[in-house]
Structure formats: C-alpha cells, structure tokens
Amino acid sequence: DPATDTFSLVGPTLPGGYTYRGGVLLPSGKVVFVPYEADKVGVFDPATETSSTVGNTISGTFKYFGGVLLPSGKVAFVSYNAGNVGIFDPATDTFSTVGASISTNNMYRGGVLLPSGKVVFAPYIADTVEVFEPGNVEPGYTVSGGVPDSWRALLSPHFNKF
Predict the structure, then answer these.
(1) How many CA within 13 A on the CB side of residue 108?
(2) Which of 11, 19, 125, 139 is the S-S candidate for 38 at Cβ 3.0 to 4.6 Å?
(3) What is the mean predicted confidence (pLDDT) over 32-39?
(4) Residue whose C-alpha is closest to residue 61's, from 79, 42, 88
(5) CA 95/CA 39 separation, integer angstroms
C-alpha cells in the first residue's frame, strides 16, 4: 500500500521455489505470472486479492523468463529453456506453444512489444536477438471499465507506438 508504505500477503498460497519469473498486467486488471518451474500459469486478481493456477499442464524446467502483453490480449512468454514461445490466452485460460524451435539453455530474459506488434526477446546467453511475430497484431481489446485510470496508457494496444 503506497499510502502507508506497507505490504501484506494476500490470496491462497501458490507453490514456492523458483515457480514464476515475471508478471504481466492484463487489460482486465489481473496479473499473469510467467511459469518458470511452475506447471501451470499463475493468475492474481487484485480486485478480490486471490491467486490461482489455470490452464493445461506445462512440462519442462526453467521454461519462461518474462512475458509480453500482445495486441490480441494474449500473453507471449519469453523462452528461457522452453525451446518455444509460450502463449497464454486469458479469455480461455489456455496455454499453447507456437513458432519454430528455439535453442535452449538460458537463451532469453524478457521481451519488448514493438510498434509493429512484433516482440523482441532480449538475449541472455543467446548470441542473437529473437524476434517473434504473432499471427494477429490487430488490437483485440480496449481499455475501459474497472481499470484504474493510471493503468489505461500501459494497457493500451497502442502504448509506446509513436
């Protein structure tokens, strides 16, 4: 709570350890946790202060490190050791993988949405930059309703597009 400079633990306990690496704010105001060692996607709802795991089971270790909200409203997970791009669809709470196989072994840590709708993955151990081109780059959502005004610009499908 920035008004009191305090924090509190909320919601049911999620699995511990190296479970998630990063979070992505959704247009709904919910937060998606990026699965690193977790076998499911984590979701936190600040309106109800609850957390849960959703979607189908994701196999592997040290899978994803960071995520990017796509214009479609889906979330792209940045491949760390996964060997592919993970896609989470919050409309259906499903996880899938897309794209050609990416070399594994600590390849990327984070991503940035470009004005074109493509995503650049930041290299960690990789000696190349990965550019992911999602199939649909048209905005799939608008920012309205119960989202705080301060979040609207960050969630806009046109954010950072000059």
Answers:
(1) 27
(2) 19
(3) 89
(4) 79
(5) 11
Beta carbons within 10 angstroms of residue 136's beta carbon:
12
Q: Which DSSP symbol is given to 71?
A: T
Q: Rounded distance, CA 114 to CA 126, Å?
A: 20
Instruction: Provide the residue type at 121 as one letter.
Output: F
Write the pLDDT tens digit of every residue in 87-105: 999 999 999 888 666 666 6
Nearest to 147 by CA among 45, 51, 24, 28: 28
Q: Note the pTM of the prediction, 2 decimals.
A: 0.78
State the Cα–Cα distance between residues 21 and 45, nearest whole angstrom.
Answer: 18
Q: How many CA atoms lie within 13 A of 60 on its CB side?
A: 16
pLDDT at residue 34, rounded to an integer: 92
Of 58, 155, 67, which Cα lies nearest the Cα of 108?
67
- How many Å apart are CA 136 and CA 138, to the nearest integer? 6
Could you give the CA distance from residue 123 to residue 80 in angstroms, rounded to a whole number?
9
